[in-house]
Amino acid sequence: MRVFFHPEFSGDFRRFENRYSEVSAGLGTRFRSEVLQVIENIKSSPESAGHFLTTTTARSELRRSNLRSFPFFVLYGFTGEDLFFGSIIPSRSDPLTWLSRFPDQDKEQP
Predict the structure, then answer these.
(1) Can you say whether residue 25 is alpha, beta or left, with left for phi > 0 and alpha for psi between -120 and 50 degrees?
(2) Is residue 20 part of a domain?
């Protein structure tokens, strides 16, 4: 399996981690640890680590995996051979606005 990250994924991660670190260094560390654990869970079992993303279009390869302690989820795509991490998204955000980060099914992964 090939693993890809959207070029803005790490920036999203750092931005949210920094916001929590401004509240408390320990909170930023907990956020980082939880995101990294979710990423590892997805890598080890991408078909069962998340829930299908319900959209108005047929994009059955898109999934979301919720963080346990923070109001965020990791949006990712899995095609059977390629795993693509799109973003870390606040739960109150509309995930459909982030779909532009995912290649079309017809196109090759980056």
Answers:
(1) alpha
(2) yes
How far apart are alpha carbons 106 and 38 in whole angstroms?
27
Residue 34 lies in a domain: yes
Whole-structure pTM over 0.70, yes or no?
A: yes
Q: Is residue 74 part of a domain?
A: yes
- The CATH number of the domain holding residue 48 is 3.30.2310.20
- What are the tens digits of pLDDT across the range 64-108? 899 999 999 999 988 888 999 998 988 876 666 666 666 664 343
Residues ≥6 apart with Cβ < 8 Å to 70:
20, 31, 34
Say how far residue 106 (Cα) sits from the centre of its chain: 21
